[in-house]
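Below is a typical protein record.
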Amino acid sequence: MSEEHLQKQLTTIATDYGQVGAFIHIHPLFVGDDNQEILFSPQEKAIVKQVFLMAKHLKKSLNEAANHGRSCFCTVVRLDGAFGLEQKVNFGAIGAGLFGLTKTLVWEWSRVFCRAIDLNPKLDAEQSAHLIIAELHDNNRYLTEVAYGSYGRVTLTSVLGKS
C-alpha cells in the first residue's frame, strides 16, 4: 500500500482504460465492542491514508474530466446514518475523517462533484447502492455531506443561537 504502488496502478488504469473521471470509496465497516469507548484501528488508518493519497494523485485527472462532463469524488462511510451523532453504534472514528477530506476538496476542486455519505450499517448492499447512485446524480452541489439512517436522508445545518 505504498504511494509508489498506488501511482503505478493509476498509470496502468490510465493506459488501459483512459483517465479516471470518477472515484468512489466505500469504506469498510469498523465496529468496536460495546465495552470499547472509541475504536482506533491501524487498518482503518491505513485505508484512510490511501484515500487521501488517491485524492492527491487524482486531482489532475478528475479536474480534467470535469471539462468533458460530470466528474466526481465520493466517500461512503458507515458510521450510524446520522454523522455519528446518534451514539447507538460504536463505529471506527478514523473513517469519519473522510468527511473533512471531501469538504476540503469541494473548495479546492470547484468543478468536481464531491460528496461524503454516511450510511447506517443496517442498510443492505442493494439499498446502499441505490442511495449512493442517487447521491451521485443529485443536482444540489451546495450539499457536501448527507446521511441515511433512522431519520431518512439528513444533512447538517447551522443554526444561529441567541446569546
